């Protein structure tokens, strides 16, 4: 368990301290105000074990520090594990807690002092148990995918060899020694929608500016990280792109800043209210706009014009998981950042609205939109596609499996094939999955999109 906590690094529930000092009162308060956690005394920020020895005097002083907090905080366990002293702080049920220096909480692996707005929000929410923290009675440990856990940790730069699923769930605050929490289901279940039917995202593209003619639709019924990847691929498929060459450097730019859209997708997934059934996160592409909507009222303290710097999170454990793979910024300024990126690109400010649903609308600029004409497609041909993607498009038929594509290209390494050929082609919208809602399905196949077919036609004209 200790090796796993150290290898994961500091996060929502783990804090490293090279040496013991009485200043740990802030961290104890922060853990109690969040979801509990572990103080590892004798571990440096770079995960190097420096060593610390637990004495009776130290143990008594730590317990005294916890008792002197207001209200008193429960320390579950203080133990010597190898060369490290482990202090396990229980999640508080009488929040907010304070020490002599004030009120603190955990945000993205750091202990931060709470401002007045955050404190008011915590007072208001103390009687509410977050959906992500509830034990999922319909999920057993065997319903959790080891493949997804290993893929997640690989993205964090950690290689897991021998591990226990229950310990991993517990260390990430996605479960206890006997239960899996809803957050664990949403991120790591083999088939999340079987257990939580609301775990899905709807992706729709309409002809024109009204919700009348749907010409493309995908429902991703998989874990939250798969939903994020599916939504980004869908947006890249349906948004226009232009290639700018400056000083022999190619820069591909989407008509709406892709980083702003990425932030909006992550916000919708991380902040949605998963207790709401019968409604999903939705991404809708129209000729004049892109609308991203998620169920859930705006969190207390958040200002819809993006001017507030309050990091109010409905699902802090899920947000922490996205933060570990560097998909969530740590400053709590998502709306402000999205607005700034769009304005800097010369587009109108996004329209943001709240209620029982939170919605953000990005406006497309018809002046920039590349029409599907021969000349402009030729521009894409000459500046946008890599040699590997070109080869893949030529090898792709109406409906082709991954293995068939790899064999046609005479490639032995599946990892290189995915990295250099398959993923870039999917992200650029030149090919698509036949079962987009289940990316890892054994029946999954790939086919050319309209954009991919136009590209091949343009190549033929150029070579004619």
From TrEMBL:
Signal peptide: none annotated. Residues 388-449 form the Filamentation induced by cAMP protein Fic-like C-terminal domain. Residues 10-115 form the Schlafen AlbA-2 domain. This is Transcriptional regulator. It comes from Candidatus Raymondbacteria bacterium RIFOXYD12_FULL_49_13.
